[in-house]
Design a protein that fits this description.
heterodimer; A: mainly alpha; 2 domains; disordered N terminus; B: alpha/beta; Rossmann fold; 10 helices; 9 strands; disordered C terminus; ABC2_TM (chain A)
């Protein structure tokens, strides 16, 4: 359980509950309990998906149609209304848009479902002791399984527009993994904030939309206006999504800064997010 | 002890440490800071900040409480509403951390607390039971094994286990909740006001099951306002008022003192404490 154990190696059933210093639970038993309950997080996400009917035929179709329509809308917005002023070809731009947008919606989905996971888990939280971090992690799993079908769509688009192929594409999952770590950290921060400020969920979509416009999804990083370029590395998604689209869409090796930036942002977000969440989680039961 | 289905390791601990109590609560205080807003939002936080108000209120739910509970005893916790009974139960179950003091729990705890179980009404009874079991730390196999027993014990009627829980009546909710709590193989079972909606037949069945658990040297905490069930089921009793232990002892004596106190009012609390 969510507790310190004395001599836990020998005596797994003894728990000691004491006030913790600086709000953090003892980390080793915490992560051990977290690992032991991973089946719970998986089952929670699975039943959640089932309850939302996403495993039915039309539920799955919707998961594909929704991002496609979004891609069409943004394509319209950036190409036709802007007068097709980008230097790249229309097809390549569309592929880049889809590759970036699909993964961005994975990120957005993970953060927004994660943000609601603790408040939504109300009664379970009030009645059982378990590492609360399982809730945002379970939401992350849900978001990932909602993202997977869009990858098949992307594969089709990539072939249809005649995108380049290369062995470096096999490295793309590395950036997906880094983005997942980053999303986990962000969703923990927002999940904890949501407990204190219930309107976080209503302002999150706007925050996310602005973030989308600031990230190299609708535009290519190299066509950014000169005066904004110095600020790009401060957006974590520049390296995380930029690296992903470089590898997947253009089959080219992203520059070293993107690798370093991606790793730094992912590790930092996960560390800060999880520490913040853990330091707050014991208070959730009285705040719900 | 052979009838116990606890694991080997736990059995060993129990026999080795028969002198240690199941639950040891040492000078525990729980103060929590909570907001008095109905829904805390960022907007109200800003408005309040502008006015220089504080929305946090400290609630001293439990104050300097100490007691030991031995293995195999059934302890009734009584007290007025808001006395801190549920908070204390949550602290022993590890849901709320104590603000000061120390709680030692020997054994697996299964809780059936006042708000019902962590049931998601959109999911079926079966899915909820599986989720609850996994959250309690059982493996998928263990949950599957227990599911049949739980289903048989709850007696919901044909097909209800597969239906979403929003179609259940409140009595059915409690049947499932109780069945889950007692079938988690707990060493320590905590029941907080959980049988109020059950019908007479189920209450009898539940009481029999609780007696059976206690006979198998399980420890049980029973929070109740039904004095008769405390008198019947418990062999020990604690009366809590305003976060403090007022009295501990034989259920009959404690209940008598408590009912007397309720009639007389809080002014004579001091003299009653000396009883």
């Amino acid at each position: 359980m969510n507790a310190t154990s004395v001599d836990e190696e020998f005596n797994p059933s003894v728990h000691v509950y004491e006030p913790h210093k600086a709000g953090l639970p003892p980390l080793r038993p915490y992560f051990r309990a977290l690992w032991e309950r991973r089946v719970f997080a998986a089952e929670m996400s699975r039943t959640g998906i089932r309850a939302a009917n996403t495993n039915t035929f039309f539920g799955q179709i919707w998961l594909v149609i929704n991002p496609l329509l979004l891609a069409a809308v943004y394509y319209l917005l950036t190409q036709i209304i802007a007068g097709g002023s980008t230097r790249q070809g229309a097809a390549a731009t569309f592929a880049h848009l889809c590759g970036g947008l699909f993964v961005f919606y994975y990120f957005q989905g993970a953060v927004s479902t994660g943000a609601g996971s603790v408040v939504g888990g109300g009664k379970l939280l009030m009645n059982m002791a378990f590492p609360r971090m399982l809730l945002p992690l379970s939401a992350l799993r849900t978001a990932f399984f909602r993202f997977l079908p869009t990858m098949f769509v992307y594969a089709v688009i990539h072939v249809v527009v005649g995108g380049p192929f290369g062995f470096v594409m096999l490295l793309a999952p590395v950036f997906l993994f880094l983005l997942t770590m980053f999303a986990a950290g962000m969703s923990m921060i927002f999940a904890a904030l949501q407990v204190y400020f219930r309107d976080t969920a209503s302002f999150l979509p706007y925050f996310m939309r602005i973030w989308l416009y600031l990230s190299p999804v609708l535009w290519f990083a190299e066509v950014a206006p000169e005066k904004f370029k110095p600020f790009l590395p401060f957006n974590p998604l520049t390296s995380l999504i930029g690296g992903w689209t470089d590898l997947l869409v253009r089959a080219k090796m992203p520059p070293l800064e993107m690798w370093i930036g991606g790793v730094i942002w992912a590790v930092a977000a996960l560390a800060i997010g999880s520490l913040f969440f853990m330091s707050r989680e014991r208070e959730f039961a009285v705040r719900l | 002890m052979s009838s116990l289905s606890v694991s080997e390791a736990e059995k060993k601990t129990m026999s080795n440490t028969s002198s240690t109590p199941a639950v040891r609560v040492q000078d525990v205080s729980i103060t929590y800071r909570t907001t008095f807003e109905r829904v805390p939002t960022f907007k109200t936080a800003i408005v309040r900040f502008g006015r220089g108000e504080r929305a946090i209120r400290e609630v001293k739910a439990v104050q300097n409480v100490s007691f030991d509970v031995d293995h195999g005893s059934t302890i009734g916790i009584i007290g007025a509403n808001g006395a801190g009974k549920s908070t204390l139960m949550r602290a022993i179950a590890g849901i709320l951390p104590p603000t000061s003091g120390r709680i030692e729990v020997h054994g697996r705890v299964s809780t059936l607390l006042s708000l019902g179980v962590g049931f998601n009404a959109a999911l079926s009874g079966k899915e909820n039971i599986v989720l609850g079991g996994l959250a309690a730390g059982l493996t998928r196999k263990q949950v599957q094994e227990r599911f049949e027993e739980i289903e048989a014990f709850a007696e919901l009627g044909e097909g209800f286990m597969e239906m979403p829980m929003r179609t259940y009546s409140s009595g059915m909710f409690q049947r499932v909740a109780f069945a889950v709590a007692v079938h988690m193989d707990p060493d320590i079972l905590m029941i907080d006001e959980a049988l109020s909606a059950g019908d007479a037949q189920f209450k009898t069945k539940a009481a029999a099951k609780m007696k059976e658990l206690v006979e198998n040297s399980r420890t049980m905490f029973l929070v109740s306002h039904a004095m008769s069930s405390v008198r019947e089921l418990c062999n020990d009793c604690i009366w809590i008022d305003k976060g403090k232990v007022m009295m501990r002892g034989e259920p009959k004596e404690v209940i008598d003192a408590y009912t007397h106190f309720l009639k007389v009012g809080a002014t004579e609390a001091v003299s009653l404490e000396d009883l």
